[in-house]
Amino acid sequence: MNRIVALDVDGVLADFDGHWRQCAELVLGLVVPQVHEDHQLRTRYGLNRQECDAVWRDYHDDEWSRLPLYAHAADLVYALEDLGCQVWAVTSIDVRHRAARAESLSGLIPAGRIVCVGHAASASAKADVLRDLGAVAFLDDHPANINAAMYAVNLSVLLDRGYHGLEATEYGVTVIVKTRWIFRCW
After folding, report:
1. What DSSP letter does each residue of 78-117 carry, written as one string?
2. What is the mean pLDDT of the segment spanning 105-113?
3. Handedness of CA 87, 93, 99, 101 (dihedral sign)
4. Cα-flanking dihedrals φ and ψ of residue 2, to 5°?
């Protein structure tokens, strides 16, 4: 029986938001407070387009490999493996950052099981990969990706980080809600 489970990386296994914010503070030379719950980084941190572009340039140059994993990342992957699952990463970064992604995952998911669909890929790109893999479940923090995945996997799970400006989840999606840094399933 196929037991492939796919996980998004940024916001699920790795603290992309916190790391991007640290990078922004180094690049811009100032404290970058969160001013909004918006999903778009520029709005979330109150940056203008030039500031945001400068942070992204630096991030793409050297930061993907340094992205720290959440404390729960290894426990999640190992728990899935203990259930007999083969864990894959399906991530929305460009393939040119694949080696850096593997480095940041520190062997938690083997490099051969990391699929990069590209930063500008449509939500259906991840669904296509999931279908090709024959994945049975998928966990992501972006509703568009989860909604598209509903028709590719048996279990489509959203890790809801509370961001504003994203589409609603479709009926049938399992949602894990962040409440004061405690996650609850409903």
Report:
1. HHHHHTTPEEEEEESS-GGGHHHHHHHHTTSS-GGGEEE-
2. 96
3. negative
4. -75, 125
Show the tokens assigned to 54.
Answer: 């400068």
pLDDT in tens, 7-46: 999 999 999 999 999 999 999 999 999 999 999 999 999 9
d(C-alpha 151, C-alpha 17), whole Å = 28
8 token code pair: 């998004």
In contact, 104 and 89? CB cutoff 8 Å: no
> Does residue 155 register a pLDDT over 90?
yes
* pLDDT-derived band at 179, boundaries 50, 70, 90: low
Residues across the chain: 186
